[in-house]
């Protein structure tokens, strides 16, 4: 995200969380973590709690490690207007409702972190065929699928007047129903 012009202000790992009033150099933070074992103590930052990180005054929040980090207890404190679920299930169902009422756009895990699963599928397909793609081709295929998936989810969400998670679930259920109808139920 930093490479695309976002100002990264807070990061965390198992050793702690840090905040900076100025944009962080992601590469320098990663080097600090490599040499010290944690982002904690990175020069020019102050230590914050996980709760403070989730409630930080940011535009975009990316919970990327653990499930149920944003719950009914702390969702009201979230200041971000966009949440990208890079972890599996970091936002509880109760928090989903609270965030939706606050007008927060939440890109659900089923879309936001599907890239790894998609590339694993590419690896499976390549192994079956004993034909391997170049990294550039994999990235192009991944970008195409991810963009199409997000666009379909966004359209379903807008058409049905529901949050993105329900839009994604609607598409998933529809696709399973269509496959079952086309193929039938088989053992």
In a nutshell, what does this entry contain?
The protein is mostly helical. Helix content is 49%, strand content 10%. The strands form 2 sheets. A 3-stranded antiparallel β-sheet has the order 1-2-3. It has a 3-stranded parallel β-sheet with strand order 4-5-6.
Write up this protein.
It is a single chain. The relative contact order is 0.08. The chain is built from seven helices and six strands, in the order ββαβαββαβαααα. The protein has a domain at about 1-50. The model has no long low-confidence stretch (mean pLDDT about 95). Helices cover about 50% and strands about 10% of the residues.
List the secondary-structure elements in sequence, H or E: EEHEHEEHEHHHH
N/C terminus separation:
44 Å
Mean pLDDT: 95
Which stretches of 5+ consecutive residues score pLDDT under 50? none
Tally the beta strands: 6
Quaternary structure type:
single chain
Morphology: globular
Gyration radius, rounded = 19 Å
- Number of helices in the DSSP assignment: 7
Tell me the strand percentage band. Answer: 5-15%
| Order of neighbouring strands in the sheet with most strands | 1-2-3
Largest sheet: 3 strands, antiparallel
**Helix fraction?**
40-55%
Estimated structural class: mainly alpha
């Amino acid at each position: 995200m930093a490479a695309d012009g976002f100002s990264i202000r807070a990061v965390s790992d198992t050793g702690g969380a840090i905040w900076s009033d100025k944009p962080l150099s992601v590469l320098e933070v990663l080097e600090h973590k490599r040499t010290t074992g944690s982002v904690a103590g990175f020069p020019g930052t102050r230590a914050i709690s996980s709760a403070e990180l989730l409630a930080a005054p940011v535009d975009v929040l990316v919970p990327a490690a653990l499930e149920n980090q944003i719950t009914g207890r702390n969702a009201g404190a979230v200041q971000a207007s966009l949440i990208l679920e890079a972890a599996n299930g970091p936002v509880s169902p109760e928090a989903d409702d609270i965030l939706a009422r606050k007008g927060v756009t939440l890109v659900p895990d089923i879309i936001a972190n599907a890239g790894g699963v998609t590339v694993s599928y590419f690896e499976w397909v390549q192994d079956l065929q004993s034909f391997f793609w170049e990294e550039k081709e994999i990235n192009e295929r991944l970008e195409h699928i991810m963009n199409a998936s997000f666009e379909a989810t966004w359209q379903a969400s807008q058409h049905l007047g529901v949050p993105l998670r329900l839009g994604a679930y609607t598409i998933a259920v529809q696709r399973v129903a269509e496959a079952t109808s086309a193929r039938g139920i088989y053992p």
